[in-house]
Design a protein that fits this description.
The chain is α+β, with helices and mostly antiparallel strands and 158 residues long. It has helices at 3-10, 19-30, 35-45, 49-58, 78-82, 85-96, 142-150; strands at residues 70-75, 109-114, 126-128, 132-134. Helix 1 (3-10) packs antiparallel against helix 2 (19-30) and helix 1 (3-10) packs parallel to helix 3 (35-45). The chain binds FE2/S2 (inorganic) cluster.
């Protein structure tokens, strides 16, 4: 576990009510809740690891696997679903060689499905790194969209 994570935990008092704030802070620093971080939090607060996992799993905000360098989120809200969001997700799974919820072997991308991201007029929509919105997506544009991130040149498409 990183020194940073230990420092984050040490800033809190050892009260059980600090569990959620500690989990949030650790995730903010490390990007996810690693098994080592959970063990350290368990020791620190005197709460079993199982209890921590059951509390944390209840909240969608917590992730237990290391995220990719770029997060790829495919919207499958109603408008995107109707306009072929599933096909876009299929293409991304094939292109990245992962299933939804997984991260690529080189930790470059992780892939998730999400509910409406609020720009239904652009359906179907893919959002990369929280801020890059790719609207009116087609299967044919998936490769080109990913290529910008593979090369590390960032977003250029609309
Ligand atoms: S349903 Fe996809 S943006 Fe609203």
């Amino acid at each position: 576990m990183s020194k940073k994570v230990k420092e984050v935990i040490a800033k809190f008092s050892r009260e059980r009510s600090n569990l959620i704030p500690i989990l949030q802070k650790v995730q903010a620093v490390a990007g996810y809740l690693s098994p080592e971080a959970i063990t350290e939090i368990s020791r620190f607060l005197g709460i079993t690891e199982n209890d921590i996992y059951s509390v944390a799993s209840f909240y969608a905000q917590f992730r237990f696997t290391r995220p990719g360098e770029h997060s790829v989120k495919v919207c499958l809200g109603t408008a995107c679903h109707v306009r072929g969001g599933e096909l876009i997700l299929d293409s991304l799974e094939r292109e990245l060689n992962v299933k939804t919820g997984q991260v690529t072997g080189d930790y470059k991308f992780d892939l998730e499905r999400v509910a409406c991201v609020g720009c239904c007029a652009l359906a179907p929509v893919v959002v990369i790194d929280q801020q890059d919105v790719f609207g009116k997506m087609t299967q044919g544009r998936v490769k080109e969209m990913l290529a910008q991130y593979k090369k590390g040149t960032g977003r250029k498409a609309k």
